[in-house]
């Protein structure tokens, strides 16, 4: 475990509104959530931040662990005086959010986990270990094209070249040490023993076209968190919040604004949209 990093963040939305923290994907910055902020900031005090090693945040020497990233998030909440918050994370951001919800459950009101996983089998864990080695040797530009190709469905990428260029630049400008350190965290991650400790009402979102983390990963998470809701979005890949922004924003908003306790059901109730 490394010392907590003081991560760069921005805060938007009405003072006094419920706090919502958005955690981003490996190789991205807080700008990843731009499509969601205008609507969510109408209802919540939205906190976005650059994960350690990304964007404008510090780049501690690696390797990192998911626990390190989770303690960075808890430190951010402490600095902002937010005793509790809703958490929403995508990909590694979802893993960090799940770690916090399991290990500091008193800090989390409701939880949204998007296009994420709780455990990688050896082949996928090895892929991240290999990617860390490539990035340390050649920089993040060496993997940017391949990463973005897995973030978006081909039809969306072909019809939105400016989005592709922007995302590629986001990956390519991520510090190599920070990106590789987070790859190390992914390679070693196993949150499955933690998930039964999550007490927050949880929505798990997967994307049917996500070749990085197919819906089976989300279904496994939902099966381990009692009472969770599981949704699969059609027509989207890993960055579902960018390909289907209205649907993802609506799912987040409705889950977090629900006033009644969610109906308890067998874990992993599934819905396709």
List keywords for this structure.
single chain; alpha/beta; 273 residues; 11 helices; 8 strands; eight-stranded mixed sheet; Rossmann fold
Can you describe this structure?
The chain is of the alpha/beta class. The protein has one domain (9-118, 190-272): Alpha/Beta hydrolase fold, catalytic domain (Rossmann fold, 3-Layer(aba) Sandwich). It is 42% helix and 16% strand. The protein contains 11 helices and 8 strands. Strands 1-3-2-4-5-6-7-8 form an 8-stranded mixed sheet, sandwiched between helices. Strand 6, helix 9 (215-224) and strand 7 form a beta-alpha-beta unit. Helix 2 (66-79) packs across helix 3, helix 4 runs antiparallel to helix 8 (176-188) and helix 5 crosses helix 7 (161-172). It starts with 8 loop residues before the first strand and ends with a strand. Residues 260-269 have low confidence and may be disordered.
* The CATH homology group name: Alpha/Beta hydrolase fold, catalytic domain
Count of all domains: 1
Proportion of residues in helical segments = 40-55%
Helix count equals 11
List the helices and strands and how they pair.
Blueprint: E1 9-12, E2 19-23, H1 37-40, E3 45-49, H2 66-79, E4 85-90, H3 92-103, E5 108-114, H4 122-138, H5 141-151, H6 154-159, H7 161-172, H8 176-188, E6 201-207, H9 215-224, E7 229-233, H10 240-243, H11 245-257, E8 269-272
Helix pairs in contact: 2-3, 4-8, 5-7
Summary?
This protein has 273 residues and is an alpha/beta fold. The chain has 11 helices and 8 strands. It has a single domain (9-118, 190-272), classed as Rossmann fold (3-Layer(aba) Sandwich), CATH 3.40.50.1820.
């Amino acid at each position: 475990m490394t010392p907590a990093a003081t991560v760069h963040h921005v805060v938007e939305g009405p003072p006094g509104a419920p706090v919502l923290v958005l955690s981003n994907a490996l190789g991205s910055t807080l700008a990843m959530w731009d499509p969601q902020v205008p609507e969510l900031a109408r209802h919540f005090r939205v906190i976005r931040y650059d994960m350690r090693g990304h964007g404008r945040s510090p780049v501690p020497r690696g390797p990192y662990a998911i626990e390190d990233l989770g303690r960075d998030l808890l430190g951010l909440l402490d600095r902002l005086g937010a005793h509790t918050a809703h958490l929403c994370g995508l990909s590694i951001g979802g893993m960090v959010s799940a770690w916090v919800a399991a290990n500091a459950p008193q800090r989390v009101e409701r939880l949204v986990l998007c296009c994420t996983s709780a455990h990688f089998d050896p082949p996928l864990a090895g892929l991240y270990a290999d990617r860390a080695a490539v990035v340390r040797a050649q920089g993040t530009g060496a993997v940017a094209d391949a990463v973005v190709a897995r973030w978006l469905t081909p039809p969306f990428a072909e019809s939105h070249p400016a989005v592709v260029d922007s995302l590629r630049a986001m990956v390519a400008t991520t510090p190599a040490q920070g990106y590789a350190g987070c790859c190390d965290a992914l390679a070693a991650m196993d949150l499955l023993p933690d998930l039964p400790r999550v007490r927050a009402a949880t929505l798990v979102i997967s994307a049917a076209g996500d070749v990085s983390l197919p819906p089976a990963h989300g279904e496994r998470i939902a099966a381990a968190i009692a009472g969770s809701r599981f949704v699969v979005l059609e027509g989207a890949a890993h960055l579902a919040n960018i390909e289907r922004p209205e649907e993802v924003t609506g799912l987040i908003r409705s889950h977090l604004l629900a006033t009644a306790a969610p109906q308890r059901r067998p874990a992993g109730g599934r819905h396709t949209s």
